[in-house]
Amino acid sequence: MKSSSGHSAGAEELFKRLSPRQRECLRRVYLRSTSKEIATALDLGPGTVDTYITGAISTLKARNRRHAAELLHAYEETAGAPRKFEFEKAGVVEPGPDETSRSSEAKPLTWLQSLPFRTKGVPFNDLSPFLRFFWIVQLGIALAIGFGMLAVGLEVLSRILQ
User: Fold this and answer.
1) Which CATH number fits domain 9-79: 1.10.287.110, 1.10.3720.10, 1.10.10.10, 3.30.420.10?
2) Distance CA 13, CA 7 (A)
Protein backbone atom coordinates (compact mmCIF):
# COMPACT_ATOMS: atom_id res chain seq x y z
CA MET A 1 0.00 0.00 0.00
CA LYS A 2 1.38 3.36 -1.03
CA SER A 3 1.12 6.48 1.09
CA SER A 4 0.40 9.98 -0.17
CA SER A 5 4.15 10.60 -0.62
CA GLY A 6 4.50 7.66 -3.04
CA HIS A 7 6.44 5.36 -0.69
CA SER A 8 5.26 2.04 0.64
CA ALA A 9 4.34 1.93 4.32
CA GLY A 10 7.28 -0.42 4.99
CA ALA A 11 9.77 1.99 3.40
CA GLU A 12 8.40 4.92 5.37
CA GLU A 13 8.68 2.89 8.56
CA LEU A 14 12.37 2.19 7.84
CA PHE A 15 13.13 5.88 7.41
CA LYS A 16 11.14 6.83 10.52
CA ARG A 17 13.34 4.44 12.56
CA LEU A 18 16.44 6.50 11.75
CA SER A 19 17.57 8.78 14.56
CA PRO A 20 18.14 12.49 13.86
CA ARG A 21 21.91 11.97 14.19
CA GLN A 22 21.85 9.09 11.70
CA ARG A 23 19.94 11.27 9.25
CA GLU A 24 22.39 14.13 9.77
CA CYS A 25 25.37 11.84 9.16
CA LEU A 26 23.80 10.34 6.02
CA ARG A 27 23.02 13.80 4.64
CA ARG A 28 26.67 14.71 4.98
CA VAL A 29 27.74 11.37 3.44
CA TYR A 30 25.51 12.28 0.49
CA LEU A 31 27.51 15.51 0.19
CA ARG A 32 30.64 13.29 0.03
CA SER A 33 32.04 14.20 3.45
CA THR A 34 34.38 11.75 5.16
CA SER A 35 33.78 10.45 8.67
CA LYS A 36 36.46 12.80 10.00
CA GLU A 37 34.83 15.81 8.33
CA ILE A 38 31.40 14.80 9.63
CA ALA A 39 32.82 14.28 13.12
CA THR A 40 34.40 17.72 13.12
CA ALA A 41 31.24 19.40 11.85
CA LEU A 42 28.96 17.65 14.36
CA ASP A 43 31.45 17.82 17.24
CA LEU A 44 31.61 14.02 17.55
CA GLY A 45 34.31 11.40 17.34
CA PRO A 46 34.92 9.64 13.99
CA GLY A 47 34.11 6.29 15.64
CA THR A 48 30.75 7.65 16.81
CA VAL A 49 29.98 8.88 13.30
CA ASP A 50 30.86 5.45 11.88
CA THR A 51 28.57 3.84 14.47
CA TYR A 52 25.67 6.09 13.43
CA ILE A 53 26.28 5.36 9.75
CA THR A 54 26.61 1.58 10.34
CA GLY A 55 23.33 1.62 12.27
CA ALA A 56 21.64 3.52 9.45
CA ILE A 57 23.00 1.08 6.86
CA SER A 58 21.55 -1.89 8.73
CA THR A 59 18.25 -0.09 9.38
CA LEU A 60 17.80 0.78 5.70
CA LYS A 61 19.22 -2.58 4.55
CA ALA A 62 21.62 -0.71 2.27
CA ARG A 63 24.73 -2.08 0.56
CA ASN A 64 27.08 0.60 1.89
CA ARG A 65 27.17 4.12 3.33
CA ARG A 66 26.81 5.80 -0.07
CA HIS A 67 23.79 3.68 -0.92
CA ALA A 68 22.16 4.50 2.43
CA ALA A 69 22.80 8.22 1.87
CA GLU A 70 21.28 8.03 -1.61
CA LEU A 71 18.22 6.20 -0.27
CA LEU A 72 17.68 8.85 2.41
CA HIS A 73 18.16 11.65 -0.10
CA ALA A 74 15.66 10.12 -2.52
CA TYR A 75 13.17 9.57 0.31
CA GLU A 76 13.45 13.15 1.54
CA GLU A 77 13.24 14.61 -1.96
CA THR A 78 10.08 12.70 -2.90
CA ALA A 79 8.49 12.94 0.52
CA GLY A 80 8.74 16.72 0.40
CA ALA A 81 10.25 16.74 3.86
CA PRO A 82 9.25 19.93 5.63
CA ARG A 83 12.78 20.46 6.94
CA LYS A 84 15.46 20.86 4.30
CA PHE A 85 19.04 20.26 5.36
CA GLU A 86 21.23 23.35 5.33
CA PHE A 87 24.61 23.99 6.84
CA GLU A 88 24.71 26.55 9.58
CA LYS A 89 26.71 29.63 8.72
CA ALA A 90 27.91 30.33 12.21
CA GLY A 91 30.13 33.39 12.30
CA VAL A 92 29.69 34.12 8.60
CA VAL A 93 28.33 37.50 7.61
CA GLU A 94 26.16 37.65 4.53
CA PRO A 95 27.67 39.93 1.86
CA GLY A 96 26.05 43.28 1.30
CA PRO A 97 24.70 44.44 -2.09
CA ASP A 98 27.95 46.21 -3.04
CA GLU A 99 30.05 43.15 -2.12
CA THR A 100 28.07 40.68 -4.23
CA SER A 101 28.94 42.44 -7.49
CA ARG A 102 32.66 42.12 -6.71
CA SER A 103 32.36 38.41 -5.87
CA SER A 104 30.93 37.57 -9.31
CA GLU A 105 34.08 38.87 -11.04
CA ALA A 106 36.79 36.35 -11.84
CA LYS A 107 39.48 36.43 -9.17
CA PRO A 108 43.09 35.69 -10.11
CA LEU A 109 44.66 32.63 -8.53
CA THR A 110 47.08 33.20 -5.70
CA TRP A 111 50.40 31.37 -5.89
CA LEU A 112 49.18 28.92 -3.23
CA GLN A 113 46.05 28.04 -5.20
CA SER A 114 48.06 27.27 -8.34
CA LEU A 115 50.04 24.52 -6.57
CA PRO A 116 48.90 20.95 -7.26
CA PHE A 117 47.94 20.33 -3.63
CA ARG A 118 44.49 20.06 -2.15
CA THR A 119 43.44 23.32 -0.53
CA LYS A 120 41.69 23.18 2.83
CA GLY A 121 37.94 23.42 2.43
CA VAL A 122 37.96 22.46 -1.27
CA PRO A 123 36.51 18.96 -1.80
CA PHE A 124 38.18 18.41 -5.17
CA ASN A 125 41.14 19.50 -7.27
CA ASP A 126 40.15 22.72 -9.03
CA LEU A 127 43.21 23.21 -11.25
CA SER A 128 42.57 24.24 -14.84
CA PRO A 129 43.67 21.89 -17.64
CA PHE A 130 46.57 24.25 -18.42
CA LEU A 131 47.84 24.16 -14.84
CA ARG A 132 47.48 20.38 -14.72
CA PHE A 133 49.57 20.04 -17.90
CA PHE A 134 52.10 22.54 -16.52
CA TRP A 135 52.56 20.50 -13.33
CA ILE A 136 52.84 17.21 -15.23
CA VAL A 137 55.65 18.71 -17.33
CA GLN A 138 57.31 20.16 -14.21
CA LEU A 139 57.22 16.78 -12.47
CA GLY A 140 58.76 15.14 -15.54
CA ILE A 141 61.56 17.70 -15.63
CA ALA A 142 62.17 17.30 -11.89
CA LEU A 143 62.37 13.52 -12.26
CA ALA A 144 64.83 13.83 -15.16
CA ILE A 145 67.04 16.23 -13.18
CA GLY A 146 66.88 13.97 -10.13
CA PHE A 147 67.81 10.90 -12.16
CA GLY A 148 70.67 12.81 -13.82
CA MET A 149 72.01 13.90 -10.45
CA LEU A 150 71.84 10.32 -9.20
CA ALA A 151 73.74 9.05 -12.26
CA VAL A 152 76.45 11.72 -11.89
CA GLY A 153 76.75 11.00 -8.17
CA LEU A 154 77.19 7.28 -8.79
CA GLU A 155 79.80 7.96 -11.47
CA VAL A 156 81.78 10.26 -9.16
CA LEU A 157 81.52 7.70 -6.36
CA SER A 158 82.78 4.91 -8.62
CA ARG A 159 85.80 7.06 -9.69
CA ILE A 160 86.64 7.79 -6.05
CA LEU A 161 86.51 4.11 -5.12
CA GLN A 162 88.81 3.03 -8.00
Assistant:
1) 1.10.10.10
2) 10
